[in-house]
Amino acid sequence: MKSLSLCVSLVPVLVLVLVPGLWVRVSAAPGCGPCDPDQCAGLPAAGCAAGSVRDSCGCCSVCAAAEGEPCGGRRAAARRCGAGLECVRTDEDKKMKLGDEDKKKKLGVCVCKSNYEVCGSDALTYSNGCALRSASLAAENQGKEPISIQNKGRCPTAPVIVSPPGEVYNVSGSQVYLSCEAVGVPTPVLTWKKVLGGKKREELLPGDKDNLAIQTRGGPEKHEVTGWVLISPLTEEDEGSYECHAANAKGEASAVGAIRIVHSIHDIVKTVTTEDEL
């Protein structure tokens, strides 16, 4: 009987004590006392950014750690990440050979398990599913409809000209170019036109001009496109306004630049100086 008692005393116990009208849990886990829900602190009125979870003692509801917040720890002070997040230790800690007990003590940071952008049902793009879930919880707390994932990647958007073509001055026979950058989802298609005596008359480029070429490439950012009009050699006929036009399934946008011919390099400096003064 003595050996039996010794064995029982070494086993962690979780005892349910029957009290008239109430079950009370008594935990043998270090730092956790009897669970009394009436003693639990309430959740914030504004809600929890990453939702709520049970505390490490399994008694009270507490705010889960959100993306970028500290997590981990030991016993009653341990903090858990919200749904879709995982507790990641620093690179320095990963390089160290830690025992099981040391690993429990180490703090980490909550990181989203998904690392791709998502489009929400509110037509907004979120950096990942965790950011969308936080926004959805905030919306529900305000009595609004929850936000769901519509698709992976950015939400469809009409093109925007982020870098319009400028105004170029040079002498005849030189090499000049105009550039234009646009962004949109899906990635826009860029075209160039020369304005002929007003916006109502335009010539689609490159046409049959031997001295003019059109180049386009994706980037530098995702869903961005860059295009150029290259002219070499520059002639009197090439002077004028040039329109960069971007279009996709969601819409279109355009911007106008210009090429001006001057008689000498001195005229270029003089023209630019005058414009700066204005």
Structure characterization notes:
With 278 residues, this protein is an alpha+beta fold. Among the domains are: 118-152; 157-276, Immunoglobulin-like, CATH 2.60.40. It contains five helices and 19 strands. It has helices at 2-9, 91-95, 100-105, 129-141, 265-277, and strands at 14-19, 22-27, 52-54, 61-63, 70-72, 85-88, 107-112, 118-120, 125-126, 149-152, 157-163, 167-171, 176-185, 189-195, 202-204, 212-218, 224-231, 240-248, 251-262. The strands form six sheets. Strands 12-19-18-14-15 form a five-stranded mixed β-sheet. A four-stranded antiparallel β-sheet has the order 11-13-17-16, with no helix packed on it. The longest helix has 13 residues, at 129-141. Residues 1-29 have low confidence and may be disordered.
What is the terminal-to-terminal distance? 102 Å
What is the 3D form? elongated
- Side by side, the strands of the main sheet go 12-19-18-14-15
Structural class, judged by helices and strands? alpha+beta
The run of helices and strands is HEEEEEEHHEEEHEEEEEEEEEEH
Largest sheet: 5 strands, mixed
Could you give me the name of the CATH homologous superfamily of the domain at 157-276?
Immunoglobulins
Could you name the CATH topology of the domain at 157-276? Immunoglobulin-like
How big is the Rg? 33 Å
CATH class of the domain at 157-276: Mainly Beta
**Mean pLDDT score, rounded?**
83
Number of strands: 19
* CATH architectural type of the domain at 157-276: Sandwich
Record keyword descriptors for this entry.
278 residues, alpha+beta, Immunoglobulin-like, 5 helices, elongated
